[in-house]
Amino acid sequence: MTKQDIHHKLRNLMNNIAMNAELAKLQISQQAPAEKILVSLEKVTESCRSCAEVLDSEPHDHG
After folding, report:
1. pLDDT tens per residue across span 9-25
2. How close are the terminal C-alpha atoms of the chain, in Å?
3. Rg of the Cα trace of the chain?
4. Is the pTM above the cut of 0.85?
5. Would 32 disulfide with which of 5, 27, 52, 53, CB 3.0-4.6 Å?
6. Residues 6+ apart with CB under 8 A from 17
7. Gap between the Cα atoms of 55 and 57, Å rounded
8. DSSP string, 30-58
9. How far is CA 60 from the centre of its chain?
10. How far is CA 46 from CA 5, 8, 36, 62, in A?
11. DSSP state of 60
């Protein structure tokens, strides 16, 4: 995977995290059922794990 591919993938995941965090805030403010809020927060957690996997799977340049 190229650096550009990694950058693109991480940006998409971070956008997903931000979108679902904002959705959870909206759901809380509108007193949505807890199940809906938990789904949004689980998506945040999944995207965080995916970010870690992308970072862990690539060799690091220590130069």
Report:
1. 999 999 999 999 999 99
2. 19
3. 15
4. yes
5. 27
6. 44, 47, 48, 51
7. 6
8. TT--HHHHHHHHHHHHHHHHHHHHHHHHS
9. 21
10. 19, 17, 15, 28
11. P
